[in-house]
Write a structure and sequence with these properties.
By secondary structure, the protein is of the alpha/beta class. The protein has helices at 16-41, 100-107, 130-137, 150-160, 202-208, 245-262; strands at 2-4, 10-12, 63-68, 72-77, 84-89, 111-116, 142-148, 168-172, 189-194, 217-221. It starts with a strand and ends with a helix.
Length: 266
């Protein structure tokens, strides 16, 4: 059906039924876009300690608090003096408490873990957040920067310009961006690859070793998937695990502990 306009041109006039369904489709698309934007802006609550018991059990005397230093962060401290400081950059859109389990487990080894809270839970919004945390807590400790997924890429970017402040780096399901290279540095690096990861392509993780020091160690977590590095539930596009989450965490913890034990002390 056509309709004559005031200027003598014709335009298509949709039948009422077609206009109705077009309106429905547009409303659904708009609702979907609003929901996507809301999920990015309105983040789930940050609750300390709700899902943080490590695979090896609760370390005695560990404290976990939400503090502020250049922005909010989770501060996980052992009962005694800390010898190592871990600065952990979370994965994209992942709440920081998803990695509290690891910090609590490592506290038994004299490790203090600090996990920054990034705007929109995206480490790309504050790549240099580690600066203030290292300045406040790093004196006399071996400082290790850690990152999962997008947080790992940002951790590698931070490490590129701060190798003099770091004693090591751990990447979990992550790799340096194509324009970031630490190949000519002597920074000790551990790269953890989940065997069934379908979010961080295993081929890309392995290729990332070409931009890391020759001494970088690649460790595969058998049967694990991308989301098993944290506690935030299943992730769209990820692979299917062939081990339990607890078993994967035990392997991750073992690999991290072995890596930290080899690092030189200040």
């Amino acid at each position: 059906m056509t309709r004559l306009t005031a200027r003598g041109r014709t335009r298509l006039a949709l039948p009422p039924r077609a206009r109705f369904w077009l309106g429905v489709i547009l409303a659904l698309v708009l609702g979907y876009l609003i929901a996507l934007g809301q999920s990015a802006v309105v983040r789930p609550p940050l609750v300390i300690g709700q899902d943080a018991v490590p695979p090896s059990g609760q370390a005695q005397g560990v404290t976990s608090t939400l503090e502020n230093e250049g922005g909010a962060f989770i501060n996980i401290k052992p009962s005694g003096e800390a010898k190592t400081l871990l600065v952990y950059y979370p994965g994209g859109l992942v709440r920081p408490q998803a990695y509290e389990w690891l910090g609590r487990a490592l506290a038994a080894d004299g490790v203090q873990t600090v996990i920054p809270v990034f705007p929109l839970d995206l480490a790309v919004t504050g790549i240099n957040r580690a600066d203030a945390l290292i300045k406040k807590f790093g004196a006399g400790k071996t400082v290790v920067i850690v990152g999962h997924s997008l947080g790992g890429a940002m951790a590698a970017q931070y490490a590129k310009g701060h190798t003099d402040q770091l004693g090591g780096m751990i990447l979990m399901g992550a790799y340096p961006a194509g324009n970031v290279s630490l190949k000519d540095t002597s920074l000790p690096v551990l790269s953890l690859l989940a065997e069934n990861d379908r979010v961080a392509d295993p081929a890309n993780v392995r290729d990332g070793l070409n931009r890391l020091p020759a001494s970088a160690q690649l460790t595969v977590i058998p049967g694990s998937v991308h989301s098993f590095f944290g506690r935030y539930g299943p992730q769209k596009g990820d692979g299917l695990p062939t081990v339990t989450h607890a078993a994967a965490e035990a392997e991750i913890l073992s690999a991290v502990r072995a890596f930290l034990a080899k690092l030189p002390t200040p």
